Amino acid sequence: MEPDAAVSSPEDRPKPQWSEGSSSGLHYGSFVNSLSSLTPREPEKEGISPRSAKIAVAVLCYINLLNYMERYTIAGVLLNIQKFFDIQDSTAALLQTVFICSFLLLAPLFGYLGDRYNRKYIMIGGLSVWLVTAAASSFVTESLFWLLMLLRGMVGIGEASYSTIAPTIIGDLFTGAQRSLVICVFYIFIPIGSGLGYITGAGIATLTGDWRWALRITPIMGVVGLVLLVLLCPNPPRGAAETHGEGVTGRTSYLEDVKYLLRNKSYVWSTLGVTATAFLTGALAFWTPTFLSRAQVAQNLRPVCEKEPCNPIDSYIFGAVTVVTGILGGCLGTGFSRRFRDKVPNVDPVICAVGLLGSAPCLFVVIFVASVSIPTTYVFIFLSEVLISLNWAVMADILLYVVIPTRRSTAEALQITVGHLLGDAGSPYLVGAMSDAITRSQLETPFWSFQSLKFSLLICPFIGVIGGLFFFMAALYITEDKEAALRLVGDPGPQQDPSPEPHLELSSQVI
Predict the structure, then answer these.
(1) How far is CA 85 from CA 88, 145, 152, 428, in A?
(2) Residues of the chain with pLDDT under 70
(3) Cβ distance 28 to 258 under 8 Å?
(4) Which residues pair with 5 in a beta bridge?
(5) Helix (H/G/I), strand (E/B), else coil: 220
(6) Separation CA 166–CA 186 (nearest Å)
(7) In 178-282, at which residue ranges do the beta strands (DSSP E only) sit?
(8) Local structure of 239: helix, strand or coil
(9) Which of 12, 26, 110, 199 could form a disulfide with 319 if both were Cys (CB 3.0 to 4.6 A apart)?
(10) Residue 145: partners with Cβ closer than 8 Å, 6 or more residues away
(11) Running DSSP on this structure, what letter comes out for residue 32?
(12) pLDDT for residue 59
């Protein structure tokens, strides 16, 4: 049985079973354990207490909430931004694309650093950059749209440092069923933050009459998060959860880490599934409020927005739906995982596959019913978002238990890079560009503007089906890969032929 937490007193910790020359005999490369790592260097330090671990998770959840609030505040005031800068759909979508591109390009760098250096300091530096650039973007004038895009790109630098590292710290504080529960709580704040981003963005813009004030709220709240991160978040030893607080260190190159991950089949297939999920959610999150607003204009339920501030009601409702469905779907996904994991070892990727496949027909209904009934559209938006939200925590948990601790930051970074590069970095722009192209085929009218966006969104359910198939492929390999990772950090098993690969050591030292 896996321990439920990484925290325990020194006298309670079992003595390490690892010895010189032992090898796990894993398919993805073996590691020789150094005898020197088992020799006491100094009196053992007390582990991180359960109370401190829970406080750290609360801080990380708060910052995760702010990350996604800031990311989707732009979508909540998109109509205002388009009127302010006088830009079309494809140009407006560049705001999200530029942000995601910088986010994904820097993720591998932070993944490399996160597996080798003090993760807390890296997050503090990244969050500081995020606060400054996010606040600065609210002061851009209407003639400097290029500067707004540049600052949005710099915001991605800060978020890349946090998103690649925070889940690995949670993975080193908890394990087993407790880790699944904590990861669920952490990732539930993605849809909660996204939903609150729409609501606060639209609400502040309406209250102040200036959309730029909407971009200043999360940086103000982020200062509190930065202080809490400095004071309350630890940097636990890598692998502490699986080794009763001892931790492991691995002397490996970045190329060796990447090769290991590419040979891990369940990691590769689940990363492709994550990519499809990112494509789907990125396009829907950015365009749904605008799509719903245009649908009501097409039905003559609302006048065309001629100048800012535009009617924010769709951002309010969609934001509230996103919050509720995120909590409900995240809890259901984790609940199904914990209930059936003992009976169905590969249940996690199956849950993700069912969620994406089930969302596809709901999205078709959303797209085609919007021109007839807005209430019915919201019902199917609710259903589709619940099904997609089944995946959030489960996807993250898969990575943590199929990848060894010393390579988790790299694994997170590569998954983020691939997921965003082929997913939500391009999906908002692709939908916007398709919408502009369709609009130009006829005389532009409010009805045709809605129709063009409707037809361009049809790509989303097809991507959902493809993503479901990727997760079914991951289900074929995940049991073997999970057992391989557990053997390496828990019980190495019988000695086999030594391999000249790098050492993996038990260690109580933190870089």
Answers:
(1) 9, 7, 15, 18
(2) 1-47, 239-251, 307-310, 489-511
(3) no
(4) 174
(5) helix
(6) 9
(7) 248-250
(8) coil
(9) 199
(10) 85, 87, 91
(11) B
(12) 93
